[in-house]
Design goal:
Largest sheet: 6 strands, parallel
Strand content: 5-15%
Number of strands: 20
Structural class: alpha/beta
Bound molecules: thiamine diphosphate, magnesium ion
Helix content: 40-55%
Radius of gyration: 30 Å
Shape: elongated
């Protein structure tokens, strides 16, 4: 066990009544979390024979930490991310506060019951952050702290609430995730305050015991990033032993003990400790400390680590809180499975107590059969006293009468956005996006309110995704005002990048996971801060993949934001295959709580942007994703039906009734499709030309209609069925997009028609558009060949 950097001053030994009651609650949390998992695995009927699972050891490891935070330190305005595998402890805590039902607890990991890992959407309003994909929940707290500063400094939301602390209770293995370090760097750049990460340092992950020297490095990293680092290594019993004669030898022995040996001895218990200690310390004065203890007492002494000594933990938290708002990492030494039969065993991560072990545990916990769920059963204090204790906990006061979820009124979105003049101009969707946003950024008239609530962010691609003009108008956010040196020196630049607490753009480093974590945090601002923020993040389309887990994580929490991914596809021709995205349209279709679109023309873009501002605020809405392009296309004066564009597609040339073929395009391949169509109609005059604006919405609507029909709503019809209805049942369809062709292949199933889908299914390469569209089968000839093939097959 490596040596501590900051030792905690031990508290005086005698425990107050308050401390005794805290210990009662620790017992209860240990019991309830273990029992919930036991109930789910061994008591509840199991219909399919699948292992239900749960993590009793991970829960046991952080009982004191959780109890210290929720029963002593946390205030209602604090926001807390709980390590995924401590979900049962978290729910048990809420159960004690009367905020969780027994029924839900009994249903752990069951349909309709509580989720294995805390889930904002599925478990209800007590959960501040979902966790599950390790590392993300931890990093999220840094971004939620940044957002809390942002909303406060912009005067948005519940400014009456004092600033909260953003706390992550994390597993030590979570610090293996790279996104943690990306977030640390970003947090440092933004001078993030009020963040605490409490590491449950049980030195075990899923497979094994972690190497000893690791945490020395990690502590150093935290300090380099401006964090305070507090190691909570020993409990008060051990500290007291160290003050005795020979105590230093004992301490040195523990400090030198490899993590794996320490874990193995913990599992083996007092006799094994004695044997090993005596063989190493037999000649030291420490022997007297060891000799006077029974095996059980010796085991208890040697496992008296700081993270299991609630008074030590509380003292560490209080000291840090008194020091101010510096981000602080607490490394609390713990034992995985503490207090349970498999404590310290390296394979205990998914270990479950046997029925016999549970029976013994019930006995030790003084719980009568049939009273397993009673909140105060088996404790050495009266229910009245325990209830009074809970009522006095700061966290016991609800944040709002209905829970921890705040709300914010919707921001009015004007009926139409300010559109750029396109007549006679070629324009790309990316260019159009930049122009529209810049115009909103003037904050004129009816756009004043909308502009004030938009927050933009980008991972170092602000200028290249056309956010520059918006940023020039609205400024860059920083807690401190910093001038633009280039501007002050009168050096010419198109960008004016002064920073201030009123700025509305958060500039990030390149790490895409940070973008999505920030969008996630900003997208939760209504619930977290009572502030309506309309977050817009821009990223190069291929690098959505780089941040994908964080994007899915944000959506899983139902965060509301607008993602603009641009440029996209082969169309970005000279840039080459690493930058040419192929799979993103499929991601857009497969991601839940994310409505994705790909407009072709600027009029569609205007409709979809407006829709996005509205949809991301609606209770039944979601996050929105627009995939854009840098290919400038001719823009026409035309009337398009906004509802059709939003529903996923509209006929540019409607087919004649009973038409034998239709051509569908999505995105910047429109000119090739139009040219092919012009030839096609010379042979097939009734053919239709369809503009697909969202395969995702078309597909989702189709699935929804099928479900509705199956459940009795026989008249349910989806938009894609309506669109394709005029075509002959045996008609052929050729579809084309600058993305994977499977995006459209399903269209053939809607009415049993033949589809020949075109689109790149291989990595791209450098070239110009004619070369690449030819090579990957997107050019006019390829489209016409596909039409011929489709017609022939009929
Ligand atoms: C991104 C991700 N990778 C893998 C997992 C599977 N997994 C769940 S817990 C765990 C180890 C956790 O160890 P630690 O963070 O130390 O937690 P504790 O010891 O407190 O249980 C792993 C690998 C996961 N949940 N998320
Ligand atoms: Mg661990």
């Amino acid at each position: 066990m490596n040596a501590p950097i900051t030792a905690i001053t031990p508290l005086a030994p005698p425990s107050s009544r308050h401390a005794q009651l805290l210990k009662q609650f620790e017992r209860k949390l240990l019991w309830l979390s273990a029992w919930m998992i036991h109930n789910a695995n061994h008591i509840r009927p199991n219909r399919d024979g699948l292992k239900v699972g749960g993590h009793q050891a991970s829960c046991a490891s952080c009982i004191s930490i959780m109890a210290a935070i929720y029963l002593e330190i946390a205030r209602p305005q604090d926001r807390i991310a709980v390590k995924p595998h401590a979900g049962p402890v978290f729910h048990a805590m809420n159960y004690l506060f009367g905020r969780q039902t027994r029924e839900k607890m009994e249903g752990l990991r069951q349909f309709g019951g509580i989720q294995p890992y805390p889930s904002r959407v599925k478990d209800g309003a007590e959960v501040d952050f979902s966790t599950g994909s390790v590392g993300l929940g931890v990093a999220m707290t840094s971004f939620s702290a940044l957002m809390a500063d942002y909303t406060r400094l912009h005067g948005l939301g519940r400014t009456d609430l004092p600033p909260g602390r953003h706390i992550a209770i994390c597993g030590d293995a979570e610090l293996d995730e790279g996104n943690i370090y990306e977030a640390l760097l970003e947090g440092w750049k933004h001078d993030v305050r009020n963040v605490w990460w409490v590491v449950d340092y049980n030195r075990q992950s899923l497979d094994s015991v972690v190497p000893d020297r690791l945490f020395g490095r990690i502590e150093g990293l935290f300090r380099d990033m401006g964090w305070n680092c507090v190691t909570i290594k020993y409990g008060r019993k051990l500290e007291a032993a160290f003050t005795r004669e020979g105590g230093t030898d004992l301490r040195d022995w523990i400090d030198d003990c490899p993590n794996s040996l320490y874990a193995a001895l913990t599992f083996q218990g007092g006799a094994a400790w004695r044997q090993t200690l005596l063989s190493d310390l037999g000649r030291s004065k420490a022997r007297a400390i060891i000799d006077e203890l029974t095996d059980a007492e010796l085991g208890a002494l040697m496992t008296n680590l700081g993270g299991h000594d609630i008074e030590t933990v509380i003292e560490a938290f209080r000291t840090a809180a008194a020091e101010g708002d510096q981000p602080t990492c607490f490394i609390a030494y713990t034992i995985k499975g503490m207090g349970l039969p498999f404590a310290g065993h390296k394979d205990n991560h998914a270990g479950l107590m046997t029925k016999e072990q549970m029976e013994q545990f019930r006995h030790d916990m003084n719980i009568r059969p049939g009273h397993e769920w009673d909140p105060f059963e088996g404790l050495d204090a009266s229910e009245t006293e325990l209830r009074a204790f809970l009522a006095e906990c700061p966290f016991g006061t609800p944040l709002t009468p209905s829970g921890r979820l705040l709300t914010a009124p919707m921001v009015h979105v004007p009926a139409a956005l300010p559109m750029p003049k396109t007549a006679g101009r070629k324009m790309s969707t990316q260019g159009g996006f930049g122009d529209i946003l810049a115009e909103i950024g003037r904050g004129n008239g009816e756009f004043k309110d909308l502009a004030a609530h938009i927050m933009t962010t980008s991972p170092d691609v602000t200028v290249s995704t056309n956010l520059g003009p918006w940023v020039n108008r609205r400024g860059i956010f920083d807690r401190h005002t910093r001038n633009d040196v280039f501007r002050d020196s009168k050096l010419a630049s198109a960008q004016r990048w002064g920073m201030s607490p009123k700025g509305q753009h958060i500039e990030l480093g390149i790490a895409e996971q940070n973008l999505f974590l920030l969008l996630g945090a900003a997208g939760l601002a209504p619930g977290m801060s009572g502030a309506r923020v309309l977050p817009i993040g821009t990223v190069y389309d291929p690098f959505v993949n780089r941040g994908l887990d964080a994007l899915i994580y944000a959506c899983y929490q139902d965060a509301r934001f607008l993602l603009i991914s641009t440029p996209s596809g082969l169309t970005l021709a000279p840039e080459g295959g690493q930058h040419q995205s192929v799979n993103t349209p499929l991601i857009g279709m497969a991601a839940d709580r994310l409505a994705s679109f790909e407009p072709t023309h600027v009029d569609e873009l205007g409709i979809l942007l407006r829709h996005a501002f509205d949809f991301m605020q609606r209770p039944d809405g979601s996050a929105v994703w627009l995939r854009l392009s840098t290919r400038a296309l001719e823009q026409r004066e035309r009337v398009v039906d906004p509802a059709a564009v939003i529903a996923g597609g509209h006929w540019v040339v409607p087919p004649a009734p009973g038409a034998r073929i239709a051509l569908a395009y999505q995105g910047p391949v429109a000119p090739e499709a139009e040219a092919a169509f012009a030839e096609l109609v010379t042979e097939e005059p009734g053919a239709g030309l369809l503009a697909i604006t969202s395969p995702d919405r078309l597909h989702a609507g189709w699935l929804a209609a099928q479900r509705a029909r199956r459940t009795g709503d026989r008249g349910a019809v989806s938009w894609v069925e309506t669109l394709l209805a005029p075509l002959d049942r045996g008609a052929a369809m050729v579809t084309v997009l600058d993305g994977h062709p499977a995006t459209h292949a399903w269209l053939g199933s809607v009415r049993g028609q033949r589809v020949v889908p075109l689109g790149p299914d291989r990595f791209g390469q450098s070239g110009d558009i004619p070369d690449l569209y030819r090579e990957y089968g997107l050019d006019t000839d390829a489209i016409l060949d596909a039409c011929a093939q489709a017609m022939l097959a009929g």
